[in-house]
Specification:
It is a single chain. By secondary structure, the chain is an alpha/beta fold. It has two domains: about 5-205, no CATH class; about 210-284, no CATH class. The protein is built from ten helices and seven strands. The chain has helices spanning about 5-20, 40-45, 45-55, 70-75, 125-135, 175-195, 210, 225-240, 250-265, 270; strands at about 35, 60-70, 100, 140-145, 160, 170, 200. Strands 1, 2, 3, 4 and 7 form a five-stranded mixed sheet that branches. A two-stranded antiparallel ribbon has the order 5-6. Strand 5 (about 160) and strand 6 form a beta hairpin. Helix 2 (about 40-45) crosses helix 3 (about 45-55).
Amino acid sequence: MNELSRREFTKLIAAAGVATRFPQTQTTNRVIGIQVGAVSFVDEGIASVLDRFQRDGNINALFVATFTYGRGIAGRQVPGQPLPDHGKQEYDTNFHGGNYARTHEQYYSHTALKEIQAPDHPGFDVLAEVLPQAQSRRIKIFCWYEDVFRRDLEGIDRLQEVTLSGKKASTICFHNPEVQAFWRALTEDYLRSYPIDGVMWGSERQGPFGNAIGAICNLGARCTGKIASERRLLRFFVASADPISGNSRVGKAVERRSEEHVCKHLPSDEVNSPGGNGRLAHLA
């Protein structure tokens, strides 16, 4: 191959410099996605957000937070954490959550959970507004909705799980027919009402055993009451547990972690009792 002349090299460098100023055409079949909430489009403008995604990340798919009552995927930065270098420089302390697309009532006749329209951005339907501009750029749109609810929603009391102490939980019960009807309704609403490319449903829950032993109690003093209400079940597990073989690395790890948990959440006299030797290892 002949070496490039100085003039040819200069032309190539100049062309490359001009090209990087414009969004690059997608040349890959891989999905390069990013999560985004309606608040980003409201704060910064749809075109501006899409420009940034394509310029900085070569993004070709958006996982839009269409339904959630959790700030994590639909709100601005968590209060107290550093704000990003773009967007509105304030926290949304009045965050509420809900359905950020339009709620079409005809799909929700078999569930008590009907009033789900998010009040955060009145008049802004994130799917109706973003879809046309995203499709013109060949960016795919996926509805991302998650299993996070508020306790003050109309009709939520019929759907909530019940804790061991008899109190209503913040989670809704997967076995409740109206809960199943709600998820079907929301999914059908999105698929029939908008030309989306797909859906992604998220549920970041641990299992019932993890709940029973207080595995979620990593919030310090605020969880003291919850731990106390679960001690009876924990005592039963400790008393009935059989030691697990410590020959394997897995066995040793389970023994160590269960012992740490027992020592943290039970009184010392119960931890050192004969019935506590087995810990919780056999249930891991």
